[in-house]
Amino acid sequence: MLATRLSVDELATHIPDGAKVALPPDYSYCSLATTRALIKRRAKELHLIGVPAMGFQADMLIGAGCVATVETAAVTLSEYGLAPRFTAAVRQASIRMMDATCPAIHAALQASEKGIPFIPLRGLIGSDILRERADWKVGENPFAEDDPIVYLPALRPDVTLMHAPLADKFGNIWIGVRRELMLMAHASAETIATVEDIVEGNLMDDEKTKAGTIPGLYVTAIAEAKRGAWPIGIPGGYEADHSHLLRYVKMAQTEEGFHQYLEEFVFETAAVAAE
Amino acid sequence: MADILLEELLIGSIASNLDGLRHVAVGASSPIPGAAALLARSRSNDSMRVSILGSEDNNFFTDGGKEIFDIAGEGRMDAFFLSGAQIDGQANINLVSVGDYRRPKARFSGSFGSGYLYYVVPRVILFRLEHTRRTLVDKVDFVSAPGFSDENVYRPGGPYKLITDRCLFEVDKTRRCFRLQSVHPGHTVNEIYEQTGFTFDMPDGDVPNTPVPDATTLATIRGPVAEEISEIYPAFAARVFGVGRAA
Fold first, then answer.
1. B140 domain-assigned
2. Is B103 inside any structural domain?
3. In terms of CB atoms within 10 Å, which end of chain A has fewer, N or C?
4. Is residue B138 part of a domain?
């Protein structure tokens, strides 16, 4: 079965307003090309799920007013510091926070990929993370006496958005060792991806590539986007554009500066296409 | 210790708390713990594994972001490092916010893996380079992870030491508090009292100085360890050791 191939702007329409969108962290494969398309189409009320944390992608979507809810273990720009639009939005209470811890996100997605309603997880008891999460419960280990454990409901994103080095025309997506993307695809109702390259042949034909490939079964649509992770990089591909990221962080310190950034690098598509 | 940097003292001190372990993991934004783990490995006679988030050379995981937590849950991780915007006298850590959670005065990145790893990793070393009453507080505003748990809560892990830019505390698990273990050269016990927002126990007798690394250790830190850490933290390695590319 052949994959649905779209432009990046068309791909972004697979994330409707209000959708629960699973996003990877900056050190994985992020589709910043689609982030810009979502901002351009003025997406609204998105519920972002960081698997398990998010970076520039989330900061931009939050700053652009596309986000209602953030469910994540962290939003961080790592060596570039705190995420300025995220922290401003939390301080102004303009987004709803669902703070988590990394393995809780992974475990809740694993429940979803297994089709089970909940999953238990160690840790968390006595923390304010748990206190603030009305959707999580403390239950008993049914196999032991007096052993409280946290139950997490299965987490089923409407859509996973990723960028990947390679796909084929069947919609198989090669993600190599970045297997959190495999978990995300399994757990989500739909997966959409931008890719650097759509190759000839079938990625399933060689066991070396097959081992790191998300089957097309999970994939709704793909779009080719060279340097689609820019301005962040992709591991094993290209480096982050450090001077651009520094410029982003500087501009995003204020709302005015951030909107100027959007004008220059998101709404002006010509500037984005340049490297 | 005129010619020994604070960073080198801390690297040596942390490493001496890691010797003999099988697997030490280091999280994000932790150049000094990362260097300490590499130092401990270099003298482990090849019996210690070190995994460092963000490293390509020191990252042996192949099953995605969840694997490091699964490894910890199974008991295959002996030591990890955590910090906090605030740390309190009961070893609670706060990585989330200051003030009211819903309308905070300051918001930080988030709890990351602390809400799990603090419970399951036997030797969690708390690390905070700003030792003031602003950071070491009587009670944290948000508990990302508690220092101690009720008797019936599964808790094979927890705090082991707290190291700052001024001193080293050890953890008294029975009394559930910190005890001053040593003061870094150039700092005083009075200063520790003045700059610490929580109460802590004192050792019997005089408080020793934190030992400075010996010449062999120092040579290892400045040589192979500096070189290795520059792969992950080039700016840190350039600033402290003058190796690798400029920041």
1. no
2. no
3. N
4. no
State the CB neighbour count (10 A cutoff) for residue A36.
Answer: 25
- For chain A, domain boundaries: 4-102+155-241, 118-153
| CATH code, B177 | 3.40.1080.10
Residue whose C-alpha is closest to residue A35's, from A161, A157, A156: A161
Are A91 and B143 a contacting pair at CB < 8 A? no
Number of domains chain B is built from: 1
Most A CBs within 10 A among B112, B121, B239, hence the mutation to make, goes to: B112
CATH class in words for A4-102+155-241: alpha beta
Q: State both tokens at A249.
A: 């962080």
Contacts of B69 in chain A (CB under 8 A): 102-103, 106
* B65 contacts in chain A (CB < 8 Å): 25, 28, 51-52, 102, 106, 180
Q: Within its chain, how far is the Cα of A103 from the centroid?
A: 16
CB contact under 8 A, A128 and B96: yes
Question: How far is it, in rounded angstroms, from Cα B189 to Cα B182?
Answer: 9
Q: Are strands B23-26 and A46-50 parallel, antiparallel or unpaired?
A: unpaired
Residue B18 included in any domain: yes
CA distance B152 to B135: 30
User: Beta strand pairing status for B136-137 and B86-88?
Assistant: parallel
What is the three-class DSSP state of A149? strand
Nearest CA in chain A to B62: A177
Print pLDDT tens along chain A (275 aa). 889 999 999 999 999 999 999 999 999 999 999 999 999 999 999 999 999 999 999 999 999 999 999 999 999 998 899 999 999 999 999 999 999 999 999 999 999 999 999 999 999 999 999 999 999 999 999 999 999 999 999 999 999 999 999 999 999 999 999 999 999 999 999 999 999 999 999 999 999 999 999 999 999 999 999 999 999 999 888 999 999 999 999 999 999 999 999 999 999 765 454 44
For residue B224, is the peptide bond before it cis, meaning its omega torsion is within 30 degrees of 0?
no
Helix (H) or strand (E) holding B11: helix B6-15
Tokens for B106? 């300051």
* Domain range enclosing B74: 6-83+112-131+148-241
Q: Which residues pair with A140 in a beta bridge?
A: A148
- CA-to-CA dists, residue A44 to A38, A268, B24, angstroms: 9, 20, 43
